[in-house]
Amino acid sequence: MKLSELKNSLVHMQELLFVKENGTTVPKHFHVTEVGTITKNFIDCGGTLRTEEVINLQLWNANDTDHRLEAQKLLKILNLAEQKLGMKNEEIEVEYQGESIEKLGLELRNGQFVLTNKQTACLAMELCCAPKIETVEATSCTPGGGCC
Predict the structure, then answer these.
(1) Which pTM does this prediction carry?
(2) Cβ of 101: how many Cβ atoms within 10 Å?
C-alpha cells in the first residue's frame, strides 16, 4: 500500500484495526511512535547498485490500555510527516514488535489494515541464481557462471 492509498482509506474510517496475516490482532491501545522515510542504498548479489525508499510506520503497544488512536488523528500525523519530511508516495512498511522487530507490508482488507509478511528475494536471478547445471564440477564454478 502506498501513502496515498493509506490516507484515502483513513478519510472514511471510524475505527483503526490492524491485524497480522496469522489473525493476531494488534491491541487497540497501540501507538504510532514513528512516521518516517527509510532509504536503503545497496548492491545486489549481481553487482547492481540499487536504491529503495519506503515510508515507515512504527506501531508500539504501551501499558496505557485506555489509549485509542483514531483514523482522523493518524491522517493528521501522516499529513504533518508528509509536509515536514517531504515524503513521496512510496510503499508503506510497518515495524511491529514480535520476537524481534518485524518489517511488514500493509494492505486494506474488509475495512481493516492487514500487516502482511514480507519475503526476501534474489534481485539478480539471471546472473547468480540460475538453475544449477548438474554436469559441472563444483571446482569449475565461476562467479556468474550459473552453476553456484
Answers:
(1) 0.82
(2) 9
